[in-house]
Protein: ABC transporter ATP-binding protein
Amino acid sequence: MIQLEGLTKRYGEKVAVNNLTFTVRPGIVTGFLGPNGAGKSTTMRMMLGLDRPTAGDVRIDGQHYDHLKDPLKYIGALLDAKAMHGGRSAYNHLLCLAQSNGIPKSRVAEVLDTVGLTAVAKKKAKGFSLGMGQRLGIAGALLGDPRILMFDEPVNGLDPEGIHWIRNLMKSLAAQGRTVFVSSHLMSEMALTADHLVVIGQGRLLADTSMADFIEQNSRSYVRVRTPQRERLLDILHEAGVTVVESGSGALEVDGGKAEQIGELAAQHQIVLHELSPQQASLEEAFMQLTAESIEYHAHTDTPQDAPPARQQAWGDGWNRS
Ligand SMILES: Nc1ncnc2c1ncn2[C@@H]1O[C@H](COP(=O)(O)OP(=O)(O)OP(=O)(O)O)[C@@H](O)[C@H]1O
Structure:
């Protein structure tokens, strides 16, 4: 378990992490989300004792990182896959880590096998591809067989096979009862991996919720309808007690409606339909809406279709329930 209490980090005037309080629990994958510059890496560095908090506290199974004896046996982390001695072989890199942390030599071959690097164990890490480097970083995190694992953007730059592998690895580690904490700026990736979500923006906590609640509250389903007899269809749907929203593009949106019911009503009244399509709002859109206010580095673009949709004021209601 990882517990944060009022965790804060200032760099001069800049408040990188602002009064964060949340708990990362065992047995599940917790996704740590936020746009670029939100403070995810700074928070993770403080969890690992690599940065000192300006205020507040973070504890690993009840203890400060600095007080852990052989910390790799408590918590394993992948922060920056490139931060290793490239001149050493994969085997020797892991052997040095094991020896300096009181971990038996036999674990080196075991973790190399787990991450699929046994065949290249004697090769120098500087010749590794990005994906092989990520696997080696993960091998280092697994070395001490820790109860807590932390991964900072582990799928960055990986091919689909690598992404699939990391996703399954995180799920299986959580299924073994471990605490798994993984940062990302991609909601779509987290939706496939995480059971719980912690979202931050400009260092502040925006949401701490189960993925199931997030999906239930944000995957609004509706039916989009286009017709040249708009007014007539509106009257008929109104009479049938169906709630309709007019979308900006001239289409009608029927919340929670069934396409069959609308199609049959239209047919009974001989109304021509040009479109009758069930829709699902994406979680990526919901995430963008939640963090829109807190994005630090906006891209300037002339393409308004890139902006998140303006409707959906209901998004965000009921969040922050852990
Ligand atoms: N050593 C530092 N000195 C000054 N400012 C810093 C330092 N480290 C981070 N920051 C600032 O703190 C904020 C949070 O940065 P951080 O790297 O933690 O965000 P992040 O959520 O991990 O972003 P990304 O997804 O881009 O990696 C940013 O505005 C960053 O510029």
